[in-house]
Amino acid sequence: FANIYSQHHDFLFDFFSHFFSIKKSHGHNEHMNISFIWDYPNRTNKIEKVIDYLIGSDFYLGLGGHSVSILFNNLNKIQFEAAYILVKKIIKKNQSNRTYIEVIFDTIRTNLQSKHDELFLFFLGLNNDVEFFRTIDWIGNPGVQTGNVIWGELYAKRWEKVLNILNSSNEQLRLIPIKNFVKKRIQSEYNRAEDERMRYFIRPDFR
């Protein structure tokens, strides 16, 4: 693949459009390693074209992850920086597009974790509309859990991490409506947790 891509600039798009038209993405290829695509700084527009295609085609992988994440697997330090620059560009370009923001931040959570907080606050510097904010899944899928899980508490702690990021911002005044929303979500999840505990107490076999 790397040798073909080095010579044929449109190979990446052709590959994905053909590959996903056949596979329909059932989650068997989420660990595909094509990190070499980031070795060509002058071709990030080709990667962006594939991202547009995958988001427009709504291809998802196992456990709800989006196929866009495949493009960001196994990046080295230089590739990671190139990916970060492109992601930042995409966020700015699509700051009011719910679908793009949802998918891009899902990808950031799984593949660009070290830049998550920075990119989250960067986005809010562009778009701090609380009505838009509340439509996005900011905490992601917790995945498979084992043992006696209290889901409300699990989600509350995830929202608390979001609040901690918000509290680290230098623009507290602009973020008041969003912080208020997040605080309400946290309380709602803790209320849910109490309901779960009560239900399990009354019906131990319900777990």
Can you count the helices?
9
Characterize the main sheet.
Answer: none
From N to C, what is the helix and strand string? Answer: HHHHHHHHH
Low-confidence stretches: none
What would the average pLDDT be, to the nearest integer?
89
Nearest-angstrom radius of gyration? 19 Å
Helix fraction, binned, reads 55-70%
The gross shape turns out to be globular
Give a count of the beta strands, DSSP E runs of length 2 or more. Answer: 0
Strand content: under 5%
Specify the structural class. mainly alpha
| Terminus-to-terminus distance | 48 Å
Q: What is the strand and helix layout of this fold?
A:
Elements: H1 2-7, H2 11-23, H3 44-57, H4 77-93, H5 98-111, H6 116-126, H7 130-133, H8 151-167, H9 176-202
Helix pairs in contact: 2-3, 8-9
